[in-house]
Design brief:
This protein is of the alpha+beta class and 115 residues long. The protein has 3 helices and 5 strands. Bound molecules: adenosine monophosphate and zinc ion. The site of zinc ion has 6 residues, from α1.
């Protein structure tokens, strides 16, 4: 697991690395994925560092609720509120950044089968 100081997404939260923040609330920020897989592909992350969604849920359920509220807000703004919210947990599931993030995907008819 990355330590927060080495964590790319912590740097976005701290503002020490630039990214275009598309929405935010007190506990979470949203920014565009650098490698979009759909017309709308936004990542939502808590401002605090947790490795994955289950760790976040156990430690701070309200922060997870706030994260999902932000995902919904982005999806309403950009995809008429129809979207997929994905949390990859662990390398085998495709997690490559170990600061929990939800992928908000939408803007077209989405396929189902994971590659
Ligand atoms: P995951 O594979 O579920 O851990 O998702 C990590 C996501 O972060 C991938 O979809 C990457 O495209 C995305 N990503 C990696 N680096 C950046 C970056 N600098 N800015 C925005 N998104 C990024
Ligand atoms: Zn982090």
């Amino acid at each position: 697991m990355s330590l927060p100081l080495d964590c790319l997404f912590c740097k976005f939260v701290a503002g020490t690395l630039a990214t275009e923040i598309v929405a935010q609330n007190e506990r979470a920020i949203a920014f565009r994925d650098i490698n979009p897989q759909a017309p709308v592909h936004v990542l939502v992350i808590p401002r605090e560092h947790y490795a994955d969604v289950a760790t976040l849920a156990a430690a701070d359920p309200q922060a997870l609720a706030d994260l999902i509220e932000l995902a919904q807000e982005v999806a309403l703004d950009e995809a008429d509120g129809e979207y997929r919210l994905i949390f990859n947990s662990g390398p085998l599931a495709g997690q490559s950044v170990f600061h929990v993030h939800g992928h908000v995907l939408g803007g077209r008819k989405l396929g189902w089968t994971p590659a």
